[in-house]
Amino acid sequence: MKLTKQNSNVINEVSELGKQNAELKNAKVYPGMSGKEVAKSNQAADGLRANESRYKTLLDAVTDCIYTAEIVNRRPGKITIISNCSSATGYMPEEYLAHPDLLYEMVHEEDRYDTDKQVQNLIATGSCNPIEHRIIHKDGSVKWVKKTLVPQYDEDGVLVAYDGLISDITRQKETESRLIQSQTISSLGVLSAGVAHEIKNPLAIILQGIELLEFSLSKEGVNDVLAMMKDAVFRASRITKDLLTFSRENTPALEEIDLAQVINETLSLVDHIFNLKQIKIVRNFSLDLPKVKVDSNQMKQVFINLLTNAAEAMTEGGTITITADSSQNIHKKKIVRIVIIDTGCGISKEDKQRAFDPFYTTKKKSGGTGLGLSVVKGIIEKHKGDIKIESELGKGASVIIELPYYENKIKQEVTDGR
Amino acid sequence: MGGSALKKKILLVDDETSFCALLKLNLEGRGPFQVLTTSNPHAVVKLAKENQPDLILLDILMPEMDGMTVAVNLKGNKDTEDIPIAFLTALADEEEVRNLKCRTGDKYILSKLGTNEELVISINEILSAKSSGKTYQCE
To answer: Whole-prediction pTM value?
Structure first.
């Protein structure tokens, strides 16, 4: 945000320098001029050079994309100058200069009305508010940008061009969206905890009633009904338990630990599931895996959730590969990356997008509450880490966890297969 | 009532009267138990003193007085200090049990949302641990 404000100031200053330069360019040396007039004109030329140098320095200092577009017949015309555009948009200046419509075409279809209106306002009134909109980056990804436009007038006060500043605000938008989601989850959590506690006592009474009827009636047909009722009570009880886990605002009890050991311990807890389903586990842990500062119980909860999810996605056996190594994330931070890859049924695009949403489940029939992955995401985020899912329907799934690490390294044996 | 001497006496304390009534019937139907119930936590020490139960099943979250306070009162009285106490609670998931254990020391924690079969097994283990002088480790 600071940078964008600074860049706005720069663009205003650049615009002012442009005006000064236009005036300075009018001061030329002609034959027959007096010595005083020549000296004044030379002074103007010096001033012009100094301003141009300052202009260039300012443009170099700006990290966002800056461009100048002509206005012809009160309509936006061709682009005359453009710089620093490749990082925000992926396109090089010469591509914009060769294809004047590119600046318009890269705008996300749904946002074109807003960007058109911004230019129209500038032309009609001489000013317009900055707007935030999406663009399609050259690599095909969607980016959020903030666009500021500043008018340029000629000496007669006619609007002849405008300067545009495009700032990449994708990360800021992502943070905002995460914040909104976590606020929603947090308020939902407080409500859930209260509801879960209140529901458990009546459930206990229903359970006692069912067990008493089972005991005293003991008739085949009736017992079937009672068994169904009892299942329903246990299901409701499981939901309240998951709700409580989900709603807890526990601060992780951090200790420096070997994540490979935590994964191994977790695997031994869920071993029976893999044996039952004939699932092969492949462990591929880096020899010099750094220690991470995490809450080991919470991490076990994460891996139990992910491993049982993977097992549930594999109906006819298969392989779960767990890799653990150290690396750098896209922000150049040192991280330990854990990847759990299964050969199961995969996840559809829609399910993938909603996988971390509370109460979203594709396993309702088997008693899923839709809170497992929400809890996992919450834990990873409390550890300042990141989690994402890569998958296609029918092609298995990979869950990628990234956790920040510290420099001390430990040795970890590589174990392959089972 | 010759059989009642063999029956183990349990004092059940829970603010939910329906729960008390149903669990009493279930326990008495499934084992050699005589279950006394009360929904008044203030009456627990007096009832325990008079009836000398083999075990007290104590709810934790009660509006008038929480189970922890009742347990402290029982342990603070020489006539009731040796009676084993098990907290019977609807809380009881793994983490809550861990937290409760930190607060209650070696007290037993049983779930209200388990089956009565499991509950009877736990009760019998606590009672046999008491008679043999061992400490029953409750999971």
So the answer is: 0.46
